[in-house]
């Protein structure tokens, strides 16, 4: 599957996030003078912003991606806790709130002058809590785990993910076939033993193994493999992704401990790295739950991290932003001959393009199909369609959608090939992939002025009925007889017609 197709599946994903929730408080301003009272700069406060931090930022990122998310956290009975509770109420389907006597909600205040991070002020108190001590809490937690497609542990060593809690969660997850992804802290990786994937940065990897890995060194990749091998041997985790800051990411699997995949960073201009690791964890979890292999999930996470470091504050990345970044990256990396990739856009982008075209007085046309093997019949339809519209959008079934409709032997060509071929046609302005069995949800989003298709009457054409109900037009195109993908496949196989 194309990387962008996994993003379309994010709304079907259910993620459980367990970890140390925080309030991130940003105070923005400028510095123009030195204090007359002491040789220190005077910060002139111009505004502030509060948002979820720590594990809360993982929840916020999962929600921004379009996933369904549940959470488990410890909060204090204070103003910061009320803000976190209310915000989680808007983002998460369900949150299990726990309390530890005398423990305040963790709050981190960052002072930002322009794009410069001046100082951070922490208000916190470490605590100890047993997530499984209370039978009712244990039952709720196990229910949330059973509902999840993937479990994310966001550990900041504040107390929620104490060693026994981690071990119990990972053990229960393995018993029920659930993947656990960990954003670790500290040097005690025994608590993460058996996890599906652990995501340390270079400093954390060094703390856990005692091996210093320097990106500028000639033996850098060998040292990474040696450190990974040590963790695999001691703690039996299945996969490691090491984030390398401006040097990108590295992936090692316990199945192939001598092989390292290294991809470079996507960041172009770094404004703030706050929460970039949370974004990375969220995208990894969402992609794996959507069916991606670890390598593809890492590529998506790397692209998302490149977006978020260009934003100020603890930021999130939406599915539309991620799709747009993928499109720009693929187009630019393959040279002028591959600029057609820019015509392959997301549902959200298609909605915006159609809206802008209508505002400019243009007529938006739409058709859809599998277009497995492009032939003259398809070209005839496209040429006819262009006579009815100024902007022509083609909806294309994903590989998974084609298989559900036509069986496991189809499609003959994958969605990447099919979408590129369609996008290369001059009469096609944009191509949008959809994973549903019908194009109706896509049509409802785009709301074309005219929808066009061969051989469909309105009584069995819900997309056409919808367009007409909105004041548009449904056009049955003239069919070119003797042309079909099925007959082409039969001829190629030498089967009788």
From TrEMBL:
Keyword line: ATP-binding, Carbohydrate metabolism, Kinase, Multifunctional enzyme, Nucleotide-binding, Nucleotidyltransferase, Transferase
Active site residues of this protein: 278
Residues covered by region (Cytidylyltransferase): 366-497
Reaction(s) catalysed (UniProt annotation): D-glycero-beta-D-manno-heptose 7-phosphate + ATP = D-glycero-beta-D-manno-heptose 1,7-bisphosphate + ADP + H(+); D-glycero-beta-D-manno-heptose 1-phosphate + ATP + H(+) = ADP-D-glycero-beta-D-manno-heptose + diphosphate
Residue sites binding ATP per the record: 201-204
Top enzyme category: transferase
UniProt domain Cytidyltransferase-like: residue ranges: 366-460
Gene Ontology molecular function, alphabetical: ATP binding; heptose 7-phosphate kinase activity; heptose-1-phosphate adenylyltransferase activity; phosphotransferase activity, alcohol group as acceptor
All residue ranges annotated as the Carbohydrate kinase PfkB domain in the record: 14-316
Residue ranges, annotated region (Ribokinase): 1-332
Function: Catalyzes the ADP transfer from ATP to D-glycero-beta-D-manno-heptose 1-phosphate, yielding ADP-D-glycero-beta-D-manno-heptose.
Description of how the protein assembles with itself and partners: Homodimer.
NCBIfam families: cyt_tran_rel
Descriptive protein name: Bifunctional protein HldE
Organism: Mailhella massiliensis
